[in-house]
Amino acid sequence: MMGMSANLVVRGSVFLPESELMWRFSRSSGPGGQHVNTSDTQVELRFDLAATEALPAVWKDRALERLAGRLIDGAVVVRSSEHRSQWRNREAAAERLVAIIAEATAPPPKPRRPTKIPRGINERRLREKRARSDTKRSRTPKNWD
């Protein structure tokens, strides 16, 4: 679990400063009985990706491109209401935000180098195919008039 007063570490020495995180709390639906009607346990965490200076420029551009369909006015919004306590929902939202940012800023995978199928494999496949064909052909009666 991560501490809430500290910055959220994305990867290595890159982190999301607490000052750039905007928290909002509201009443949560779901289990909880009478308690749920009186406490603001649902958490909404907003991080303005377009305006941040915390991420390196390359990471920021990559994240903006990959998260384009998810951004609301340039910000990533994460909601959490699965726990009954606000504190646990805050931790869950923070972990989810870090995971989203880390995945969006990850370097692209190396391109696949196409490889040739070895000639021996192809020849063996054709040889087995011919053998199977001969086996099936030998099962049919020759003069079936």
UniProtKB/TrEMBL annotation:
Print the organism lineage: Bacteria, Bacillati, Actinomycetota, Actinomycetes, Kitasatosporales
Q: What is this protein called?
A: Alternative ribosome rescue aminoacyl-tRNA hydrolase ArfB
Hydrolase keyword on record: yes
Q: Which top EC class is named for this enzyme in its record?
A: hydrolase
What InterPro entries is this protein classified in? Pep_chain_release_fac_I (IPR000352), Pep_chain_release_fac_I_sf (IPR045853)
The UniProt entry, under Pfam families, shows: RF-1
Entry EC no(s) = 3.1.1.29
Q: Which UniProt keywords apply?
A: Hydrolase
Q: What residue stretches are annotated with the Prokaryotic-type class I peptide chain release factors domain?
A: 14-138
Instruction: Tell me where on the tree of life, at the top rank, the source sits.
Output: Bacteria
An example Gene Ontology biological process:
rescue of stalled ribosome
GO MF terms, alphabetically ordered? peptidyl-tRNA hydrolase activity; ribosome binding; translation release factor activity
Family of this protein: Belongs to the prokaryotic/mitochondrial release factor family.
**PANTHER family according to UniProt:** PEPTIDYL-TRNA HYDROLASE ARFB
Segments carrying the region annotation (Disordered) are: 103-145
Q: Basic and acidic residues bias: where?
A: 121-145
Q: Which organism is the protein's source?
A: Streptantibioticus silvisoli
- Coiled coil: which residue ranges? none
